[in-house]
Amino acid sequence: MKTPVTNEDRTDPVWEDFARRHAGNEFLKYDALYALTEPIIDAIKDGAPRFFSPEQELFERDLARTASFGFFYRHPLGRVVELPPEEPGQPSLDERERHSVQQIDKMLGEEMARTGATPYEIEEFFEGSAEREERVYDRQDAFAGWLVTNRSFTAKPERSANSGKGP
Question: Is the pLDDT at 3 greater than 50, yes or no?
Answer without folding.
Answer: no
